[in-house]
Amino acid sequence: MFAYVIRRVLATIPVMALVALFVFSLLYLAPGDPAAVIAGDQATPQDVERIRASLGLDRPYLVRFGSWVWGILNGDMGVSIFTNLPVTTMIAQRIEPTLSLMILTLILAVTIAVPMGVVAAWKQGTLIDRAVMGFAVLGFSVPVFVVGYLLAYVFALELDWLPVQGYTALSKGFLPWLENLVLPAVALGGVYIALIARITRATMLEVLQQDYIRTARAKGAGQGSILFLHALKNAAVPIVTVIGIGIALLIGGAVVTESVFAIPGLGRLTVDAILRRDYPVIQGVVLLFSFVYVLVNLIIDLAYTLFDPRIRY
Amino acid sequence: MASATLLSPIEAAPPQGVAAAAPMPDVLPPVKPRKGFIGFVRRHPTMAIGGALLLLMVLVAIFAPLLGTTDPTALAPARRTREPSAMYWFGTDMLGRDVYSRVLYGARVSLIVGFSVAILASVVGLAIGMVSGYVRILDSIVMRVMDGLMSIPPILLAIALMALTRGSVQNVIIAITIAEIPRVSRLVRGVVLSLREQPYVEAAVAAGTRTPSIILRHILPNTLAPITVQATYICAAAMITEAILSFIGAGTPPTIPSWGNIMAEGRALWQVKPYIVFFPAIFLSITVLAVNLLGDGLRDALDPRMAKRL
Amino acid sequence: MALLEVENLQTHFRTPDGVNRAVDGVSFHVNAGETVAIVGESGCGKSVTSMSILRLIPEPPGKIAGAIRFQGRDLLKLSDREMRDIRGNEISMIFQEPMTSLNPVLTVGRQIGETLRLHQGLSKQQAEEKAVEMLTLVGIPEPRRRVREYPHQLSGGMRQRVMIAIALACNPKLLIADEPTTALDVTIQAQILELMKDLKHRVGAAIVLITHDLGVVAEVAERVIVMYAGRKVEEAAVGPLFNDPKHPYTQGLLGSMPKLGSSLHGDEGRLAEIPGLVPSLKKKIDGCVFAGRCPKVTDLCRQVAPALEEKAPGHVAACHYAIKEGAIAA
């Protein structure tokens, strides 16, 4: 078991290295002189030179990559072209809102979506099932910013129940924090709920047809025990896997949600960085999100054994 | 002899004392299988609805100039931010442009991006997946690269790619395609690997059939169904990603009306003039919904086993 | 009064291309302590009949009609709650696939204990103690260790023993065994049959044994019901049925069974087969259900469905041409 964990952790190193290489190379995939592209259309030759120097573009590619990776390993992601602040500092300032938003969304989505999928599978073919499936298709189809604006319009502008925009730090109290995050979390959760509800329903449908479910019924087990003890535990591995993969949706969606609700998080930082072509910041944020994504999925992989005794390492 | 009676054919008259079993009643109402167009719609309602809606959107995009629109880029500062009315069905935006015309023309960008990405990503993904599934030496390298690409959330990857290029519809298509390719490749590779172990393919190999003809005759036809289904989902995802990119200002250039652009422009005013955001949002959602419904229907029709699951 | 009386049982399923009349008018009874076998080819409605008794048929798309009286109470009229009190308690069931019939993510002890906790209100510890006891009873060595194990750690024969332990934990009055030995190795089959016979005497439960294996029937059953295409076509005590089958289908089934010591060479040793397939049950069948495959078929058979008639004392069959004992065949 321990040896397996070590092996899995080591196996993610090449993946992370590849991600780092991609993120680093993105700059050079673009046609033309990256310094000129970053500087923009109205830049003077001096601006281009300054950017070229600050990115170290005058040195050979591999040397630059090496020193960039070395920097990251030492907690240095470079300096923003626009603010001249270290990228790590900028990320540290913006991480709390994004982390809050994503964790709240995750909890909200899982607690809503899993029971939804279970009930839909149980009541397969009925109105409830159709409603859940209909909701799932809508969740996949209505983009996160559309849901965001709709929620903000109804619950903030028309009904005035919740704040329209902004973020309050958790240190200023749980309730104000929650008030500001409810609407963004619901908006961001839409796709995620749809995804989890759908995989839960699909897996549960398969599990509910298994012989051991028939055995449980023949024993006289109640519906609740059959669904949530006998079936859901068997369906856990695919569901948990999709929850992990779906985090990619949350990350992508957070960028947009933070723009809609004016939350000063990493998503906003990304958008601002793109509009300013602040490449070190873009690299830093993309790299960070990707690492988190890989890490979460690694943990989920390792957690399979908790759900299924047949999986042994 | 008893057996003689048993075997002798009886013509008209039954033997004496025939006991007829009482017919059993119907427990359930009889089912009438339906055929033809009505039957198709009843059996695949999602495909029918999705297909019809998508067709409608395609027609809107093609015939936008004939649907009572004006020049979607014509500025008219004198009539800025007019509410929807008989004159301006969806109102006008901050620069006085007719939102109705912009939304209708905007369908073109969404559909072009959606279809192009779906086709490009499928073709490239198919090629990579085939090579990976067939050439052992390349497989591990290609799949590691795909793993790496897949570790970057797709929207983020598209954003990062767009940050480097000048906004154009073509670049948007390329960026989203790159972000979607790994998923198709993985899908195709999985199908190829499982097909190669099918008895009929192994039999063909054993019989000395050449690899290209096995690929053409056995592998390719069997990957088409899952790829078609996947392509519709990619189309839907690409439309949303295009809108997101344009919305945050890293996508279609502002000179071309696209749903994401219209919403981006309406953003500043959305609390007072929500309709500018509202109309393109509805069109986008309905179009993506149509494609998703079509995809669900296709999946049900092409893969009954998978249909039962999802 | 019989322990179980099934009267005109009909179990139908709604499918996209018609109603499947899987079981269509089956009546039989089981006395306390008796072993009754239901035999027939696959797809003839045996398993559906057994599942219908415990109301394990999903409704919809299924629908059960008729009457199933257990100790005088019609099970089809009970609420779900009342039905759950009977399942696993007064009537329990063993299934064909021991490999897949146990829940892979729960320990053996928990799965045996679940029945006891549900029906006898035992605590967690008491249930585990009783589970160990049951494992000993069904002949599993090292029960204290096994009780904490998961099904994938057990062999097929052991899993079927666990299934039997689950089924017998609450001392049921009726045990329904659906092909309990089919999936097992021949040597294990004999052990499991032996175990069932032994436990039956100890617990005193009646058994309904569903099987297509006539060898098993001869070994354990007292009375046999032959089913074909969702209907009962013949019923008799084991001896008369094997020695003097009345229905051409039963004759065919017996003819397709190899006899010990018979030569496989020459015409006499040749195994007879019943040509053709079980008809689709999605269309209403006029006349005798076996007409399509019967070697003795006549126009009468194709037009008039034969009723079940007593052809000899305690021996009923549904065939126009089966000779009634005592009738004069001139």
TrEMBL record, chain A:
One Gene Ontology term of the molecular function aspect: dipeptide transmembrane transporter activity
Domain ABC transmembrane type-1, residue spans: 95-304
Localization: Cell membrane
Chief site of localization: membrane
InterPro entries reported for this sequence: BPD_transp_1_N, MetI-like, MetI-like_sf
Membrane-spanning parts: 9-30, 99-122, 134-157, 177-197, 235-261, 281-307
This protein's name: ABC transporter permease
UniProt keyword annotation of Zinc present: no
Family: Belongs to the binding-protein-dependent transport system permease family.
Gene Ontology cellular component list: plasma membrane
Membrane topology per record: Multi-pass membrane protein
Coiled coil: none
Keywords: Cell membrane, Membrane, Transmembrane, Transmembrane helix, Transport
Cleavable signal peptide: none
Keyword Transport: yes
Organism: Roseicella aquatilis
TrEMBL record, chain C:
Protein name (database record): ABC transporter ATP-binding protein
One Pfam entry name: oligo_HPY
Any one cellular-component term (Gene Ontology): plasma membrane
Similarity remark: Belongs to the ABC transporter superfamily.
Gene3D superfamilies linked: P-loop containing nucleotide triphosphate hydrolases (3.40.50.300)
Chief place where the protein resides: membrane
GO molecular function annotation: ATP binding; ATP hydrolysis activity
Biological processes, Gene Ontology terms: peptide transport; transmembrane transport
Span of domain ABC transporter: 4-254
Keyword match Cell membrane: yes
Keywords: ATP-binding, Cell membrane, Membrane, Nucleotide-binding, Transport
NCBIfam families: oligo_HPY (TIGR01727)
Organism expressing this protein natively: Roseicella aquatilis
Localization, UniProt: Cell inner membrane
